[in-house]
Amino acid sequence: MFGNLVGVLFDGLAYGSLMFVISIGLSVTMGLMNFVNLAHGAFAMVGGYACVILMNRLGVPFLLTLPIAFVVSALVGMVLERTLYQRLYKASALDQVLFSIGLTFIAVAAASYAFGPSQQPVHLPQFLIGQVRVLGIDLGIYRLFLIAVVVAITLALGYLLERTRFGAQVRASVDNQQASAGMGINVNRVFAVTFALGSGLAGIGGALGIDVLGLDPTFPLKYMVYFLLVVAVGGAGSIKGSLVAAVILGVFDVAGKYYVPEIGAFIIYALMVLLLIPFPAGLYGRKA
Amino acid sequence: MADKTATLAPAPARTQAGAARPQLTGERWHPLEIVFWLLPLVVVPLFPGYLVLGSQILIVGLFALSLDLILGYAGIVSLGHAAFFGVGAYVAGLLAVHGWGEPISGLLIAAAAAALLGFVVSFIVVRGHELTQLMVTLGIGLMLFEAANKAAFITGGVDGLSGVTMWKLLGVFEFGLAGKVAYLYSLVVLFLLFLVLRRLVNSPFGLSLRGLREGPRRMPAIGASVLRLQVRVFTIGAAIAGVAGALLAQTTQFVGLEVLGFTRSAELLIMLVLGGTGRLYGALIGTAVFMLAQDYLAGINPVYWQFWIGLLLVAIVMFARGGILGGAATLLERFGSKPR
Hints:
By secondary structure, chain A is mainly α. Chain A has helices at residues 2-33, 40-58, 62-83, 93-115, 141-163, 165-175, 177-182, 187-213, 219-234, 239-259, 266-276; strands spanning 131-134, 137-140. The longest helix of chain A is centred in the N-terminal third of the chain and has 32 residues, at 2-33.
């Protein structure tokens, strides 16, 4: 029973970390630009397909595909941000939702046209397969790897945002766009770079997640709600909030599916609604 | 409480008595409106093969009207409106399965159930800003979907609820395979509820809803209770969505799990925006155009259909806010003729 519990917690932690990497870009877009981007999962899907194609058709090793997935998704994100997204920063949430649902539909249709409707296989390298025994509990190596990657990414992000000039500009822009622009910060450029960064992280998450979440053209629709949940519960624009929310939701989701499979996904939706009643702006939201 | 309504009443009354604003639909019926309502009647003798699709359009049109009321008039964003549609459908379906197949009382009971849910939910929905509204409505929709999915012993789960047998409508008309009774039944219900809605949005209540949409912060200043207005309109919208769901269950004699699905909520939003929000007719025209196009294009290839609808959405948001009717109104204004 105890071993089970630790195993479930561990799986939930790994699942939550993955969700964190994918959702963090969405959280920043919502916090920084007030943009409700339902198409965020599409960027994760781009990363996933980049990884699969490099690996299966060109024989690139899995670990090497991850940075490439980042770059590809970031480029796609940057192009779309400059051409389409930036026109809608001032639009109403409804317009943004409609636009991004439209973009999601296009991405889903394009992916199934280009790669077919089936699940894509992923071949993990040998050293990431199997389990290790730690203190009498079997832990999946790939899950450990996931957590390690996410810890590394979180530390790097923390450093970037807290210790660099660019990070200071991002934080200033989130707090007050007008004052930042007045202080000589190029807010537009900060937006563009942040959007690309968020898309790239989603791309890495999509590539890392193929083994856990699967990859097929409906990916952006299937997990859209999950990413939104993380942001809504954590509070838009807060990295800490997203991390806490992703882990809470991940653990509850895995535990719920393990212990009470009869009600399945019901748990996290109920949890979200329950959390949003006392915290309408999310756990770490700035504005109530 | 009483003085609040008293102070609220004169303001809209003055607006109505003063120069009639062109964008407000008047009480008087425009000839075009009469032509519009004659169209669905012409379908019966001319296209008897399309009555099944026709009733679907009428039902979804009613559903779109309910969203137009809360989104187009009151400005409450909902991504989970299918929750109320689904509750209506399941209530009507379950009533018929368990031996009460009387259609009209079934509609009323379904409306009451959906209204009750809408009333309870509205208090959570209207608390937050747009994002929170989106998330809460989305979450509630998904919760109900999961609940119906897992409670297969009541709802039939993924297989759907079958064995819905309806009694004769008014004790006279039997729901046949040709779908003529179903079509006319849906049309009458749609028309009656449209009359109610048309009256509602032109009443002082409707004007205060528009006030809510345009400036929620100023509404308290003229003595209107924002919360009470929002709760009321959300409940009414939910009830009408419930009627639409019940109509679907009764006319198709089946309830599938997809009545609660996210796709239904999202597509509904698309239809409404396609036609134009806040105009009532926009909801109906958008639904008809969307569903006819879907019937034609999805028959060719469902994946392409999704691509085109995605592209259409992006185009509407980028270039044609206001949808078909919004665009038409702009054109009319440009050519100097008086819009409705």
